[in-house]
Amino acid sequence: MTKEKLISQTIVILEKSGHTISQRCNIRPRSFDIAAGNDEVLLLIKVLSNVDGLKQDTAQEMLQLSEYLDGSPLVIGEKTRDHPLESGVVYYRYGIPSINIDTLYDYFVEKVPPIVYAAPGGLYVNVDGHVLQEMRLHSNLSIGGLASELGVSRRSISKYEDDDMDMSVDMVIQLEDMFNQAIALAIDFLNVDNKGLKTRPNPVETEPSISIKSMLSSLGVDVMPVSQAPFNAVSFEHRNSNKNKNIPIILTGFSDYTSAMIKRAKLMSSISEVTKAQSMFIVNGECKSECVDSTVLLKKTEIEGMDNFRDLISYIYEKVGKV
């Protein structure tokens, strides 16, 4: 299947399940291809035929954008190495979950979550150790007795029950057949653990993001550089301030007024609508319009007259007609 067909199928499934879809990111490099959202979840989706093609710096940016936009990164693919991605199985690379198109359909349309994930050594399942213990006791089996039935050590059974240690697929099938009860837990693959972000490399700073940081720092604005998206940075109220949740983050670009900038601004507008963010382009030099769709354009000199982040937000809201 070509990448174009895979993206088209992804969009059809997400629209069928009630998601709003952004325009495709048609720049290179790009950390995500589309943004998709509904009232429950925001997805930043990368589509790759071979999920091993996901680069570490791309994964890093997807994770950080997902953190700041309160979303979830996801890769849709067909294969890993020379093997097809199996349906109902979640694969991980650099902390980003990857699934095939059938798993996407099952999860969002059929409401059937995956229960299997791939890891070095094979396929594994998260289990409910408390349920396993109850089943064993109900069957009048000791830990040693169950271990003997399964051909594993007593220590393994204890870890399954006490620590919810994950099992191989074959072991889960054997247990569920033995007790005629499910013990497998659904995988919440959209809840990516971002706790390790502080130990990951800092985002790559480009000249536009450095300029944005320089211009906005006096307004109490924090700036996260972005190198693989239509925008150059994510700007937000300084985290040590009394943050108002009603004030959004801003997808921020910086460049001269050009046809390429207009194209990026249109794409930023589409992404901001899905992500519930705001978007703006700081224009270096002459600026021929105030907005491109919902992306506000403002000159560098206009920022100099502002005192803080809320002045900036008020200016943006005035231009896009928000109260």
Describe this structure in words.
This protein has helices at about 5-15, 55-70, 100-110, 130-140, 145-150, 155-160, 170-180, 205-215, 260-275, 300-305, 310-320, and strands spanning about 20, 35, 40-50, 70-80, 85, 90-95, 95-100, 115-120, 120-125, 165-170, 220-225, 235, 250-255, 280-285, 290, 295-300. With about 325 residues, it is α/β, with parallel strands linked by helices. The chain has three domains: about 5-115, Trna Endonuclease, Chain: A, domain 1 (3-Layer(aba) Sandwich), CATH 3.40.1350.10; about 125-180, lambda repressor-like DNA-binding domains (434 Repressor (Amino-terminal Domain)); about 205-320. The strands form two sheets. Strands 1, 2, 3, 4, 5, 6, 7, 8, 9 and 10 form a ten-stranded mixed beta sheet that branches. The chain has a six-stranded mixed beta sheet with strand order 11-12-13-14-16-15. It is elongated, with a radius of gyration of 24 Å.
Roughly how much helix do the residues carry, as a percent range? 25-40%
SSE order: HEEEHEEEEHEEHHHEHHEEEHEEEHH
Structural class assignment = alpha/beta
Extract low-pLDDT stretches: none
Overall residue-averaged pLDDT value: 91
Number of strands: 16
Query: Which of globular, elongated, flat, extended, rod-shaped describes the shape?
Result: elongated
- Tally of contiguous helical segments: 11
The radius of gyration is 24 Å
Main pleated-sheet profile: 10 strands, mixed
**Head-to-tail CA distance between termini:** 47 Å
Number of separate structural domains: 3
Strand content: 15-25%
